[in-house]
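Ticket reopened. Same input as before:
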Amino acid sequence: GAVVSQHPSWVICKSGTSVKIECRSLDFQATTMFWYRQFPKQSLMLMATSNEGSKATYEQGVEKDKFLINHASLTLSTLTVTSAHPEDSSFYICSAHRGSGPGAFFGQGTRLTVV
Amino acid sequence: GQNIDQPTEMTATEGAIVQINCTYQTSGFNGLFWYQQHAGEAPTFLSYNVLDGLEEKGRFSSFLSRSKGYSYLLLKELQMKDSASYLCAVRDRNAGNNRKLIWGLGTSLAVNP
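Engineering reply: fixed in the latest deploy. New output:
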C-alpha cells in the first residue's frame, strides 16, 4: 500500500534554532501534501496545504514566515520551523493523497520539543 | 460554516460493541472519513463513506446519512488494542482544496477488561 515517510520522528532543539521536517511519499506522487500540528489530547489542526511547484496555502493564524514549506518535487515536502520557541513544541504530522483516491495517508509524525 | 461534533470520551468492555457518533455541517459535503489514532502515533485510515448506507470492513463498520448530516463508526468484538482516539473528518468541496479535510476533535475510547 501507499506509504508516507516522515523524518525525523522526534527532535529536541534549542530555543531560537530552526528545525526541518521532511515528508516523503514513497511509492506514489503527491501533488498535494498537508501539514498538521497536534497538541496533547487535541485534534489535528491543519497548518497549511503544500502544493508541488507553487506556494503553500496557509490556514488563518499560521505564520508563513515562521513555518516555511517547500514542495520541490512530487515526492517531497518539507516544513521548517524557524526560530523555534517552547510554545512550538508539538506533534507535527504530514499527509498525502494518492492519485484520485479519497483517503489521506499520514506520515509517522514528528515530536518536536523546544528547550 | 463548517462544524463536526463527536463525543469526547467513551468507555466500553472487551468483547462488546460500541458506536461512536459524528454529526457534521458543511456546505459542500464530499465524503466522510474515520481514522484511528493511538497515543503518540499518526492517524490510520479506517473507513470512507460518500453515499448513504453502511460500509463494513471486518470488525469495523461505518454508516452515513447525508440528509441528517450524521455518521457512526461501529466497533464489534472490542479488543484492548482498540483503545484509541477515533477521528471523524469531512471533505468539503467548498473548502478551497477538494482534498482538504475538516476534522472533529476525536473520541477517546477506553476498552476495559
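The longest strand of chain A covers residues 90-97. The mean pLDDT of chain A is 90. Please confirm and we'll close it.
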